[in-house]
């Protein structure tokens, strides 16, 4: 199983367990997250880039993987990703570099899965 499949399987499995708890606050939080990235005044592509950059600056590797997967699904290319990575590193500083490394590695894996 590659990194992309492993991450997606784990995320799905754990989300099912979490939502099965039927906690109203958690369900509302998940719903809010879903609706935040829906088409609105900003298109979904812009929102995913915002989510990716924020996730890199906040140093959340799971969030970075999730947004990279969405960006890949939305048709972003490597050049566009590296521009977003540059913004994240400028805003977040050098502490973001380890997350940049993992983001590049994960993006390469996403690209390989689509070939």
UniProtKB/TrEMBL annotation:
Transmembrane segments: none annotated. It comes from the Bacteria. Residues 27-105 form the Carboxymuconolactone decarboxylase-like domain. Gene3D superfamilies: AhpD-like. GO terms for molecular function: peroxiredoxin activity. It comes from Fulvivirga imtechensis AK7. The lineage of its organism: Bacteria, Pseudomonadati, Bacteroidota, Cytophagia, Cytophagales. This is Carboxymuconolactone decarboxylase-like domain-containing protein. InterPro entries: AhpD-like, AhpD_core, CMD-like. PANTHER family: ALKYL HYDROPEROXIDE REDUCTASE AHPD (PTHR33930), BLR3452 PROTEIN (PTHR33930:SF2).
């Amino acid at each position: 199983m590659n990194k992309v499949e492993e991450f997606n399987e784990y995320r799905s499995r754990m989300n099912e367990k979490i939502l099965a708890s039927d906690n109203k606050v958690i369900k509302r939080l998940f719903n809010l997250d879903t609706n935040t990235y829906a088409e609105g005044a900003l298109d979904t592509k812009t929102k995913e880039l915002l989510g990716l950059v924020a996730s890199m600056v906040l140093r959340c590797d799971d969030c970075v993987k999730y947004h990279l997967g969405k960006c890949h699904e939305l048709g972003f290319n490597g050049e566009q990703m590296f521009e977003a990575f540059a913004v994240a590193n400028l805003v977040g500083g050098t502490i973001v570099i380890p997350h940049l490394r993992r983001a590049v590695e994960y993006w390469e894996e996403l690209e390989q899965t689509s070939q």
